Amino acid sequence: MVLIGPSGSGKSTYAKKHFRLTEIVSSDHCRALISDDENDQSVTPEAFEVLHLIVSRRLRKSRLTVVDATNVQASSRRTLLELAREYGVPAVAMVFDFAESTCLANNGKRLQRLVPAQVIATQLQDLRTSLPQLRNEGFAEIYILRNSNEVDQTAIIRRRYSGYRPPGSRPTERGPLEWLGKLLGNFRSR
Prior knowledge:
alpha/beta, Rossmann fold, six-stranded mixed beta sheet
């Protein structure tokens, strides 16, 4: 599952509420692993090397993997989609398309790293520019949440899943993949 949305949209909060800590692979946590500081943007390239390595190893073991990063540009999602294809698992996009005012308000409540307002505005613009292309990128399912009410109405149903192979992928001999079965709620799926 690829979480997509600007800083302050609630991705990390959602992930912590619905998934095991071991299932979440966070770019902030990967920064902290390298530099002891999740805010250290200077180690971002190295952090994503670590993130992609962890995602690869989890998918190899057929483990549910939730990627917690902004992922608002197609280039940032490309490697994740390639890994999903390589391991024959469905990639699910969970998009947090919140109003800029909501993201800014949430950002203001953070105890540590405050993201500059202009960065959030740019991330939101990047997100909205890429929304129409998400389906063409290769996601098996796309869920778009536009406000906290929609987030609150979602439920994660886990089930054993096997047999998914995207077009053009090679067969695997891995066992069933435990992954997001269905999201329930009053929100849009594209």
